[in-house]
Design brief:
The structure holds three protein chains of three kinds.
Chain A: H1 12-15, H2 19-36, H3 39-64, H4 72-89, H5 94-116, H6 121-141, H7 143-146, E1 152-153, H8 169-189, H9 193-203, H10 205-210, H11 215-241, E2 243-244, H12 251-264, H13 269-286, H14 293-307, H15 311-323, E3 350-359, E4 362-372, E5 377-381, H16 388-395, E6 403-408, E7 411-412, H17 418-423, E8 426-428, H18 441-453, H19 456-469, H20 485-498, E9 503-507, H21 515-530, E10 534-538, H22 542-548, E11 551-556, E12 559-564, H23 566-571, H24 573-580
Parallel strand pairs in A: 5-10, 5-11, 8-9, 9-10
Antiparallel strand pairs in A: 1-2, 3-4, 3-6, 6-7, 11-12
Helix pairs in contact in A: 3-8, 3-11, 3-12, 3-13, 4-5, 4-6, 4-11, 5-11, 9-18, 12-13, 12-15, 13-15, 18-19, 18-20, 19-20, 20-21
Chain B: H1 14-28, E1 41-42, E2 45-47, H2 54-69, E3 77-78, E4 81-83, H3 88-100, E5 107-109, H4 113-126, E6 130-132, E7 147-149, H5 154-168, E8 174-179, H6 182-197, E9 204-208, H7 216-224, E10 229-233, H8 236-248, E11 255-257, H9 264-267, E12 279-282, H10 292-305, H11 311-328, H12 334-343, E13 345-347, E14 352-354, E15 364-369, E16 378-384
Chain C: H1 2-31, H2 38-55, H3 60-83, H4 91-113, E1 128-131, E2 134-137, H5 138-160, H6 162-172, H7 174-179, H8 184-209, H9 217-231, H10 236-252, H11 259-276
Antiparallel strand pairs in C: 1-2
The chains are: A alpha/beta, B alpha/beta, C mainly alpha.
InterPro entries (chain A): AAA+_ATPase, ABC_AA/LPS_Transport, ABC_transp_permease, ABC_transporter-like_ATP-bd, BCA_ABC_TP_C, LivM-like, P-loop_NTPase
Keywords (chain A): ATP-binding, Cell membrane, Membrane, Nucleotide-binding, Transmembrane, Transmembrane helix, Transport
Domain ABC transporter (chain A): 350-582
Chain lengths: 593, 389, 290
């Protein structure tokens, strides 16, 4: 069955639909190198190959994981210095220096990962920049080892087990063979479940975590891998330049790598190669205009980025999609994955005791205890700012609780990271739409299976099963970005159910839906519960919630003020007071509603 | 490609031609076949005209271009200027490019030490003499027979620098402020040796990043060490910043600066009064005048490039002139040029050049001083190291 | 005594850096995009001042409005060529387009002015003032005063005027601003103009005492980036504080240890600050849009 499911063509990871053009371009470059290029042309090609390797690595942390690392130039420089010091000064050959050059930046990446990777966006960028500047300072000042600003001269040419590529064509082919190997490894790495995980991780880290994706591990992997590639590129650069000097650690190298990644196509292996080729060739084409050539280079760079803001590969794909519309990819045959084996346990599916959280001295959640049984639907209501969303965030570890315990299927998971709790059987929906903007509904639901199925074709087959369950099978090939709100909810619900959770936490699922859509959604939730899922719904919409819930909890100022059947809650004076009473003005918690 | 300086043209036409050439050359670049089979000599100019060394690199370029346009009668010279940027990679790529268009007879090569070090192995493989004004000591210490330096190495200039401070000014407590670049670190090491030979130990030594703007902190620290002379080894802008700061603070300790001070563009940043009493080492000071030939060079240079020449321009001019002189005497191949440069003596405008066997051609340095009334310094002392046999 | 002198110098340098960082952060807030050309705009402002001074022998303070006005036009051009065509594109493409603008500015200046360092005229005069034993260049005092006034002026423009309210509304939520009838595109272009004008002012102020070369923008953009991030991405007060902090390390800290040690200390301080304040000193202001 699996074999008959056409998932993505194996080329998708490399270049998407632009493959024929890229293969043609690659063949042309290769033919040019072998048949026509003079030593100068070959040298420019070799330098492009070195950059391509560094940029392929950079596409992992920056393109795929979406973290603006400014350390790639530093890793590249460290690789060069490792080759310079171990090769030129200690006298080891390529067979030793090359692995060492890969290892040194990788180890540095792993060492700095702990403090640096937890920083977000520009703070991560600044921290990586700072580390690079310290490394540069070290290279200039530690003259005994690095040769100071003069650097290390006389780096030997590459010699591998007696074979010397020398320069010219053999060297160019050697470097590009390494680029090809690096490209294949990078492409294989970015395939499978990671292909589903990366876009989600870039656009909505919280949603990715809630799907059981270990973002921290992916960031660490991509950071270390990017450093390894940069180290390899640095080693080759040292051999090709024959000197290592602090220039390899300076910021312009980083700017060049970043520019190549973006100009080629962010996140794309093919883009890395295209960007490296274009940006090394471009200034050479304009050399004739002695002092103005860099001016011309700047103008063309600006023109390229304005004309192709998604990069060369992105532009090719868009052009192809426009002129040669793709036939819709055939749908897989839906497959019911069957129940997931879970260890037996006693007691409620989900149980929290004394959960508390304060924001700046205000108690957003204050000693909340609750449980949900298998197949039960628990509603949580409360005025704005009463701590409802914070409660869900605490139950999924998106916020760390100040105190209290959490048990899922009888196992204590207090304080565990979000993805562990998710894998333990808790699925959640978000107040804000959390589907990735790129890709279609089937991809989005398949991402929910990413950590369960591991192999993409069964993930897609299973995903279609859950889309069918929520009545959204006809949306499978619709891009998520154009889904109307009602359909989005269905797709999100399908994604949550695709994880076959023990407990499902929904945050205002009925918001923005028409009454018909609400009724439909209520039916879906009921049937999920009927299949044994414990459901928690945070909702304002009483006409939606009251008929649906088995039991309701009312929160006010972070505490449970009432609990009971919908009927009992409807008549509870404390609830009435919380919502309407003059003695309870709108509470002003800083935590989200 | 911008300066296809053919010697056969009418000299009077040259300045006008030179204005049109960059544009024309840019247009022609794509049509002209790469190999220059017709030219007898091919002397590309591979120097940094962009980046942080653009000032010095442009002087180098202008010196080489002027020498090529003044080539002896009967020589046909093909040349193009290629920017090397400041990364070693750029220099090697430029050399490959030049070599790809017919083996060069000789190359006017970057004054940036790391770029020279990167070009050396390739020059040896191609067998092309590199004619440079780089002061970095190590480029002639690698046993490469293809490098020729027409500027005194740090060994020569820093000895003159230290000797002037100690022997002429009678100072014993120098404070050394140098750049953290390759130029700065090499100079610092040689200054330390030179002072040690004179039995003097600097009371203060510090490296300054070229991006540093405010010189007050380093001046403060230097003065705290109670020096009797301030020895600078800084690039152009930082030299001017330091001297201006010292003048503003009314510091009376004399300053003996590095060769960047002698560049007219450095002096142009300062008021003559701020320069009073400041001295500097250099290999030469073309604007200070001297022989009629030197004055003619300065006048030509001004007329051609609308800017003032410095010692780098003069050194590169002399170097390329020596190559052309050898070619006029029958050396046509790169090997013949190399042998001529390695063995003969050449009377240049700045000094007499002769190889010490390692490619060091220049063995003289001068000290220039400013009188506080003009931005043109006077040569006050000349140091000639013993010419090699 | 020398400490006071160093503080004055540090304050003057920090005030000029603050103008650079301020121009950077205004554009960042209005567009969510990083203007990598900000350093080169400062450099261009410096050369513009030098060029104007060549034909108009007047004190720098007279040139200042002229430089700022012309630089504002350049800022408009930058927004027109490098930002507006990319406004609904991935933000990182603006990063690259402004890198390209920087390359164009740098090499254009080399072509027009040559590679020599240049000095712009002083704001008032080049004399020094003796204040109780302190020898302070008149220019330093003028720089602190002018930069302070410009920072206050910018604050007044954004906080107190109708135009400023529109600019802020655009920065906060362009969609909402458009719905309220604010000409968002014009406001963004105007923000670029203000940012470039501030860069021009910084260029005039810096290039008198510290000279300007075609490559001097590269160091400035790093300083602006560090100042803006360490202060809290998008926080105006944070950017000014960050700029003063950097100048303090550059001038005051390096008076006790070597420049290299002071630079290393600056970056280590940055890393320590990020460890304890992962959202910068003043917290995030630009938020997820950045």
């Amino acid at each position: 069955m699996r074999d008959r499911v056409p998932w993505a063509s194996s080329w998708t990871g490399i270049a998407g639909g632009a493959t024929p053009a890229l293969v043609l371009a690659g063949a042309l470059v290769a033919a040019h190198a072998v048949l026509f290029a003079d030593p100068y042309g070959l040298r420019v090609l070799t330098v492009a190959g070195v950059y391509a390797l560094a940029v392929i690595g950079y596409q992992m942390i920056f393109g795929k994981a979406g973290a603006l690392s400014l350390a790639q130039g530093t890793f590249h420089g460290l690789g060069a210095y490792a080759t310079g010091i171990v090769g030129s000064q200690l006298g080891y050959g390529f067979a030793v220096t090359f692995p060492v050059s890969i290892l040194v930046p990788t180890v540095l990446a792993l060492v700095i990962a702990a403090p640096v990777l937890r920083l977000e966006s520009h703070y991560f960028a600044l921290a990586t920049l700072g580390i690079g500047q310290v490394a540069l300072l070290g290279a200039v000042e530690w003259q005994g080892v690095t040769g100071g600003s003069n650097g290390i001269a006389g780096v030997a040419a590459i010699e591998l087990f007696g074979w010397r590529p020398g320069r010219g064509l053999p060297l160019a082919l050697f470097v590009w063979a390494l680029v090809a190997a690096g490209a294949v490894i990078a492409w294989r790495y970015g395939r499978g479940w990671r292909r589903l995980a990366f876009p989600l991780m870039r656009d909505n880290p919280a949603a990715a975590r809630a799907l059981g994706i270990d973002i921290d591990r992916l960031r660490l992997e991509t950071f270390a891998l990017s450093a390894a590639y940069a180290g390899a590129a640095g080693a080759l650069a040292a051999h090709i330049q024959r000197v290592v000097s602090p220039e390899v650690l300076e910021f312009p190298v980083m700017v060049t790598i970043l520019t190549m990644a973006v100009i080629g196509g962010r996140g794309r292996v093919g883009g890395a190669i295209a960007g490296a080729l274009l940006l090394t060739q471009l200034p050479e084409w304009f050399r004739g205009w002695e002092r103005g050539y860099l001016l011309l280079y700047g103008v063309v760079l600006l023109a390229v980025v304005v004309a192709a803001p998604w990069g060369l590969v992105g532009a090719l794909e868009r052009a192809r999609r426009r002129w040669l519309p793709e036939r819709p990819r055939p749908l897989p045959v839906p497959v019911d994955p069957g129940p997931r084996p879970t260890p037996p346990f006693r007691g409620p599916m989900l149980y929290v005791a004394g959960l508390s959280k304060s924001f700046g001295g205000v108690r957003a959640v204050d000693g909340v205890s609750l449980w949900i049984d298998r197949g039960e639907i628990l509603g949580v209501i409360g005025p704005n700012g009463s701590g409802k969303t914070t409660l869900i965030n605490l139950m999924t570890s998106l916020e760390k609780p100040d105190g209290g315990k959490l048990y899922v299927r009888g196992v204590e998971m207090t304080g565990m990271p979000t993805h562990r709790i998710a894998r333990g059987g808790v699925a959640r929906g978000f107040q804000m739409a959390s589907l990735p903007p790129d890709g279609d509904a089937l991809d989005a639901v398949a991402a929910g299976r990413a950590m369960i199925d591991k192999d993409p074709s069964s993930a897609a087959a299973h995903a279609l099963h859950f889309l069918t369950l929520t009545g959204a099978a006809d949306l499978a090939r619709t891009p998520c970005s154009v889904l109307p709100p009602g359909s989005r909810r269905r797709v999100e619900l399908a994604r949550a159910l695709a994880r076959q959770p023990g407990a499902l936490l929904l945050d205002e699922p009925a918001a923005g839906l028409t009454e018909a859509e609400q009724a439909d959604l209520a039916g879906q939730i009921r049937s999920a519960a009927a299949s044994g899922v414990a459901v928690l719904i945070v909702e304002h919409n009483m006409p939606f919630l009251l008929p649906l819930a088995d039991r309701i909890i009312c929160l006010d100022e972070g505490r449970i003020i009432a609990e009971g059947t919908p009927d009992a809650i409807r008549r509870d004076p404390a609830v009435m007071a919380a919502y309407l009473g003059p003695s309870h003005p709108e509470p002003a918690h800083p935590g989200p509603a | 490609m911008a300066d296809k300086t053919k010697n056969s043209g009418n000299p009077a036409l040259r300045p006008a031609l030179r204005k049109v050439l960059p544009l024309a050359a840019a247009l022609l670049a794509s049509v002209i076949p790469p190999a220059a089979a017709a030219a007898e000599l091919n002397i590309p100019v591979l120097v940094p005209v962009t980046g942080f060394l653009a000032l010095e690199g442009t002087s180098q370029r202008n010196g080489a271009v002027l020498a090529l346009s003044d080539a002896p009668a009967g020589l046909k010279v093909e040349s193009e200027v290629i920017d090397t940027g400041t990364a070693p990679e750029g220099a090697v790529t430029a050399l490959e490019r030049a070599a790809g268009r017919g083996t060069p007879t000789a190359v006017a090569a970057s004054m940036l030490g790391t770029q020279m070090l990167a070009m050396l192995p390739l020059a040896e493989e191609y067998g092309v003499p590199l004619v440079t004004v780089s002061g970095t000591a190590s480029i002639t210490e690698r046993g490469n027979p293809w490098v020729f330096r027409f500027f005194p190495g740090d060994g020569v200039t820093k000895t003159a620098h230290a000797r002037y401070a100690v022997e002429e000014l009678g100072k014993r407590r120098p404070a050394v402020i140098h750049q953290t670049t390759a130029y700065g670190q090499s100079g610092q090491a040689h200054l330390r040796d030179a002072f040690a030979k004179l039995g003097v130990e600097p009371v203060f030594e510090e490296g300054v990043d070229p991006g540093i703007r405010d010189m007050l902190p380093v001046l403060t620290k230097a003065m705290a060490a109670n020096p009797d002379v301030l020895i600078l080894h800084l690039h152009s802008g930082p030299t001017a910043l330091f001297i201006r700061q010292a003048a503003a603070m009314g510091i009376t300790v004399p300053i003996v600066a590095g060769s960047a001070m002698h560049q007219p563009s450095t002096a142009a940043l300062l008021e003559p009064a701020e320069l009073k009493g400041v001295c500097a080492e250099s290999s030469a000071s073309p604007v200070s005048g001297g022989t009629p030939e030197l004055e003619r060079f300065t006048a030509d240079y001004r007329a051609t490039f609308k800017t003032e020449p410095d010692a780098f321009a003069l050194g590169q001019y002399d170097g390329i002139r020596m190559v052309l002189d050898a070619a006029a005497k029958g050396a046509e191949t790169p090997e013949a040029i190399r042998d001529a440069l390695a063995k003969s003596t050449y009377q240049g405008l700045a000094m007499t050049y002769r190889s010490d066997g390692r490619g060091n051609m220049a063995h003289s340095a001068v000290i220039v001083c400013y009188d506080g009334a003009s931005r043109v310094p006077a040569v006050v002392k000349r140091y000639d190291t013993a010419a090699p046999p | 005594m020398i400490v006071a002198q160093l503080l004055v110098n540090g304050l003057a340098l920090g005030a000029a850096y603050a103008l650079v960082a301020l121009g950077f952060v205004l554009v960042l807030n209005a567009t969510g995009a990083v203007n990598f050309a900000q350093g080169d705009l400062v450099m261009a402002g410096g050369f513009l001042a030098v060029a104007l001074a060549g034909s108009l022998p007047v004190p720098g303070i007279v040139l200042l409005p002229l430089v700022m006005g012309l630089m504002a036009l350049l800022g408009l051009a930058v927004s027109l060529l490098a930002y507006l065509p990319l406004r609904n594109r991935p933000p990182v493409s603006v990063f690259i387009s402004t890198i390209a603008v920087g390359i164009i500015l740098q090499n254009g200046v080399i072509l027009l002015f040559g590679p020599e360092p240049k000095a712009a005229p002083a704001l008032f005069g080049a004399t020094t003032v003796s204040l109780g034993g302190l020898v302070i260049p008149e220019q330093s005092i003028a720089v602190i005063a002018v930069a302070g006034l410009l920072i206050l002026g910018q604050h007044w423009l954004f906080a107190r005027t109708q135009l400023g309210r529109r600019l802020r509304a655009t920065a906060q939520d362009p969609e909402m601003a458009r719905a309220c009838g604010i000409p968002v595109t014009a406001m963004i272009a105007l923000t670029f103009a203000v940012g470039a004008a501030l860069a021009g002012a910084a260029g005039l102020l810096l290039s008198n005492q510290f000279f300007v070369t075609p490559s001097s923008g590269a160091g400035l953009i790093l300083k602006a980036y560090i100042a803006v991030t360490i202060g809290g991405w998008g926080s105006v007060a944070g950017a000014v504080t960050g700029a003063l902090l950097i100048a303090a390390f550059e001038v005051v800290a390096s008076a006790t240890v070597s420049y290299s040690a002071a630079t290393a200390a600056l970056y280590l301080a940055v890393l320590v600050i990020l460890t304890f304040r992962p959202q910068g000193l003043f917290g995030e202001a630009a938020g997820a849009r950045a």
